[in-house]
Specification:
With about 300 residues, the protein is an alpha/beta fold. The chain has 15 helices and ten strands. It is about 45% helix and about 10% strand. β5, α4 and β6 form a beta-alpha-beta unit.
């Protein structure tokens, strides 16, 4: 059986005017690895690529660590801890940050929300965008709460609206204006994302994977756009090391973001392994292109983990 634990931000300080960037500190990360090591045996990406059936079919518990978004802090703060414990992880990156030198919209949203209140964002929406483009239905609200388990209702709805509901052109119109008020894009690029040398290090050690080009919810895109999003990063990563064993992590990882034909296209382009964010463990019945993952919060040592004593 395989359990996959996924991380994003890892930094020493998460203090911001408004809570929107969540993650673990290095101490919390190391402590959680210690806890996880008591429950399962860590595997390497190569173990997964070459011994998948054996791992999924085993009665023994195995665990893989993954990171999404290619953040520099993952390389500088998490990787040394992993190396010290002789643990390997998979790091999934977006190629837009390197090819276009742009900050991913998801991170622009995180940064904007760290400086502006949810109420202020709604006021900006009302000023710039017609109401029918940002009104959430009862079904939308339920989806928002279900997807963003660790946010209050207002924050969950804002995040769902920005990440899934608002038309792309409208989203760009809103966030670009707000982002430019508080941040310099070139400075954010240089401080937030891994360098090419860091990517090369990961590639040399078979620790790098595809998180698509622009970090969009693939399942909501036309087929041609899905192909483009996956292929651009697949091709970009070949510049660091020719690799036929690339895994893919689907941005957001929800049912909507991973719906047909996302995994089929990923397989056609050259991926044999894919990760969603559906919570759960993986056994031989698992779809290898749609492996389940837990947020680190949900597992032993995580902030929301509740031990089942039954």
């Amino acid at each position: 059986m395989l359990t996959v634990c996924n991380y994003h931000y890892i930094r020493n300080d998460f203090q911001k005017p408004y809570p929107s960037i969540f993650g673990v500190t290095p101490i919390e990360f190391e402590n959680q690895l210690n806890e996880l090591g008591k429950t399962a045996t860590f595997i390497t990406p190569n173990d997964l690529f070459f011994s998948m059936d054996e791992i999924l079919g085993s009665k023994k518990s195995y665990l893989l660590v993954t990171f999404d978004d290619g953040l520099k802090e993952q390389f500088e703060l998490a990787l040394p801890i992993l190396k010290n414990k002789n643990i390997e992880a998979l790091f999934f990156i977006n190629s837009m940050n390197y090819i276009e030198k742009k900050v991913s919209m998801v991170h622009k949203i995180h940064l904007v929300r760290s400086e502006i209140s949810p109420l202020k964002i709604r006021q900006e929406l009302a000023k710039r965008i017609e109401e029918e483009n940002y009104r959430l239905t009862t079904v939308d609200i339920k989806k928002a709460i279900a997807h963003y388990l660790y946010d209050d209702k207002e924050s969950a709805c804002i995040k769902y609206l920005l990440n899934f509901k608002l038309p792309k052109d409208q989203l760009n119109k809103l966030i670009t204006v707000l982002f430019s008020k508080y941040f310099n894009e070139e400075q954010v690029i240089n401080s937030l994302y891994m360098t090419n040398d860091q990517l090369q290090h990961l590639a040399n050690n078979n620790l790098i994977g595809n998180h698509t080009h622009s970090h969009l919810a693939l399942g909501l895109l036309p087929k041609m756009h899905i192909e483009e999003e996956i292929y651009k990063t697949f091709s970009f990563l070949q510049n660091f090391k020719k690799n036929t064993n690339l895994a893919i992590s689907y941005p957001y990882g929800s049912v909507e973001a991973c719906q047909f034909p996302v995994s089929e296209i990923a397989h056609k382009i050259g991926h044999a392994i894919g990760f969603s964010m559906e919570r759960g463990n993986n056994d031989l019945t698992a779809n290898k292109l749609m492996l389940k993952r837990f947020s680190s919060n949900d597992l032993p040592g995580g902030k929301n983990y509740i031990k089942d004593d039954n």
